[in-house]
Amino acid sequence: MAQSFEMIIVGRFTIGIACGAHTVVGPMFLSEIAPVNFRGAAGTFNQFVLVFAILLSQVLGLPEVMGTTELWPYLLALCTVSSVIHILLLSTCPESPTYLYIIKGDRRRSENALVYLRGQDCDVHAELELLKMETQQSSTHKSNFFDLLRIPYLRWGLIVALVLHIGQQFSGINGILYYFVSLFISNGLTKQVASYANLGTGVTILIGSLASIFIIDRKGRRPLLMFGISACLFSLLLFTLTLIIKRVTEINKLTILSIVLTYTFLFGFSVSLGSIPWFLVSELFTQENRDAAVSIAAATNWLCNAIVALIFPQLVIYISIYAFIPFICVLLAVLIFVGLYLPETKGKTPASIEAYFMRLYGFRGTEVHENPTFADIIDDTKIEQPYMINLFACLCSNITDSYSLEMMYPK
């Protein structure tokens, strides 16, 4: 079957469905089961595991390892290991406490799930009170796509989410990841050197993702986004300038500078647009609106991914070294948008964020009821072993993500 073109297409189609479903459910589930003080780190850890899988696939996909015509089918088969681990561990995971309480109205099962996740010694009543408050501030009606477009404050929350997801894909990241080797071969590097330089992309994103895990719940989402997008913007601008200068002057050392600027771009991306958009949608919407919003955002993300994959080679053909200029313009627009309109979600309930959007449109009766124990939840909730098992179970599916699989195919 490994030699069957048809089976390869069927396999990639099936994996695509699974990856699409995971990008919707995975970040949302992680956000809902995470302690308040670990919510951002849990969402970022999702990106960290994905990046680790990409780096692992880059290493294993080298011609010296398993990236050959004979061995790559066996390399793809290794993904079965993570899939089996994912299935086995996820079978031990409880349902999301947020879903059980708000959607199902089952306080007892929600409390049991929280006790399992937080540990027997942890007092979960404060978190249950937060869920109770969100239930009181929410409607029992499950929103759909048309509700998100029709209701002004929901529409604005959706716009914020979509801008970040569109910005993620139109930042130029896929142009660099998919075509890094060919870009630098065309700029003077040998194929072997370019392949090893490509490993640096995975290492850089891995370091950035790891750093953001420890920073995001301390500094917040907005500062990381502003810093990361700014780094992407200026490094991509300078990268384009070096390509222009190199073409005019033929200075070979500019190739090294181009690689450094590429790594700078990747680091900025990994601490901001790489991970934050995926879990931020869950923080912007309450439970009855969250499913539809996350689904729309993920679908938009994958659509933009496909568009970039189609248009970037054409940009390289027709405008050559200026191919990244459209992405620079997008980064500038997203940076301005984040600075003006994105609310900080660190330490806030989704209900309070929706109330913020309501106030923007002058809705009455939208005061935010703060729980006096909310700060205690942020400071005192500990990470217990059952939660880490759930986290690891959910993240195992990232290893079979289409990004990491793409790196396994011999070029």
Automatic annotation (TrEMBL):
Keyword Glycosyltransferase: no
Membrane topology: Multi-pass membrane protein
Superkingdom classification of source: Eukaryota
Major localization class: membrane
Example of a GO cellular component annotation carried by this entry: membrane
Family annotation (InterPro entries): GLUT (IPR045263), MFS_dom (IPR020846), MFS_sugar_transport-like (IPR005828), MFS_trans_sf (IPR036259), Sugar/inositol_transpt (IPR003663)
GO molecular function, one term: hexose transmembrane transporter activity
Keywords annotated in UniProt: Membrane, Sugar transport, Transmembrane, Transmembrane helix, Transport
Transmembrane helix keyword on record: yes
Transmembrane segment boundaries: 12-30, 72-90, 156-181, 193-216, 223-244, 256-280, 292-312, 318-342
Compartment(s) of residence: Membrane
Record-annotated Major facilitator superfamily (MFS) profile domain positions: 1-346
Family: Belongs to the major facilitator superfamily. Sugar transporter (TC 2.A.1.1) family.
Name by which UniProt lists this protein: Solute carrier family 2, facilitated glucose transporter member 2
Source organism: Schistosoma haematobium
